[in-house]
Amino acid sequence: MVEDRPIQFAENEDVARAKAFWNENGKSIVAGVVLGLGGVIGFNFWNSYQQTQGEEASEMFDQLKAESDVSVAVNLGTELKQNYGKSSYVSISAFTLAKLLVEEGDYVAAAEQLTWVLENSEDQ
């Protein structure tokens, strides 16, 4: 029994040090873990959102390209601009609409599409 006492004292000291460490740093550790998990979850959500937006814009652009009725194509292009304004599909759709409008003889509307591209595209 005498040999058990030094071990027990060492364990009590370790437990006391662990408790002191946790009391001093526990809130910071928990906050760091919560912030880290929140950042990872937020990053994954944002990537998923961006991918979904790109896929939806792509589908709408495909509909616009396949449309033979110019007025329906213009409506799709307008909806694409409103919902996915920062997508590269918007500029491409404006070029496509300009081509369709020129083929229809509506040069003013075609010029408006091209002007929109000039005013809203990022310089690269």
Order of helices and strands: HHHH
Q: Radius of gyration from the CA trace? A: 31 Å
What portion of the residues fall into strands of 2 or more residues? under 5%
Structural class based on helices, strands and sheet pairing: mainly alpha
Mean of residue pLDDT? Answer: 88
Tell me the total number of β-strands.
0
Oligomer: single chain
Largest sheet: none
Helix content percent band: over 70%
Q: What gap, in angstroms, lies between the N and C termini?
A: 80 Å
SS field, number of helical segments: 4
Topology of this protein?
Layout (H helix, E strand, L loop, with lengths): L3 H63 L3 H14 L4 H17 L2 H14 L4
Helix pairs in contact: 1-2, 1-3, 2-3, 3-4
Task: Provide a short characterization of the protein structure.
This protein has 4 helices and no strands. The chain is an all-alpha fold.
